[in-house]
Amino acid sequence: MKSVVYIIDDNMVSEFATKMVLQQSSIACDIFSFDNAEIGLENFVDSIKKGKNIPDVILLDLNMPGMDGWDFLAQLKTIAYPKNKIAIYVLSTFTSAKTREKARSHELVAGLFERPLSKINAESILSEKTD
C-alpha cells in the first residue's frame, strides 16, 4: 500500500520542488499539499476521524504566517492519533543552530532536512514507512 505524505509549506516553490522529488522517487506515495498549517491541521484531524488518508509522513515547514510549524506541533500534542505510525520531518531553511536544535529535540519530530529535499532523503523517509 502506498504511503500518504502531507506537505505543509507556504512556499509554493519549495512545495512544488518537494512534490516533484517525491513523485520521482522509486517509492510510490500519495501526496497531499497544504499551503498553511491551519488547513493541514484541519485535514489531519479530518483524516483521523474518517480513518482515511491518514499521513504516514508529514513534511513540515516551520516558518509560516499565522499558524507556524511550531504551533502545528503544539496542536498535535492535544490530538489523539497513532503517534508511532506517523513520522514528522521538519523541512525548512534553518537560520540558526538554536532553531535546528529545537527541531531536532522536539518529541514529535523524527528528523529534519534543509530545503530543497533531495531524492536520496525522500527515498530514505519513504523507505522507513514501507518496511
From TrEMBL:
> What Gene3D superfamilies is this protein classified in?
3.40.50.2300
Give the UniProt keywords, A-Z.
Phosphoprotein
Q: Which GO terms describe its biological process?
A: phosphorelay signal transduction system
Q: Supply the source organism for this entry.
A: Kriegella aquimaris
Q: Which InterPro entries match?
A: CheY-like_superfamily (IPR011006), Sig_transdc_resp-reg_receiver (IPR001789), TCS_response_regulator (IPR052893)
Looking at the record, the residues that make up the Response regulatory domain are 4-130
Q: Which residues form a coiled coil?
A: none
Determine the domain of life of the protein's source. Answer: Bacteria
Give the modified residues of type 4-aspartylphosphate: D61
Please report the name of this protein according to its UniProt entry.
Answer: Response regulator receiver domain-containing protein
The record's SUPFAM superfamilies line, in alphabetical order, gives:
CheY-like (SSF52172)
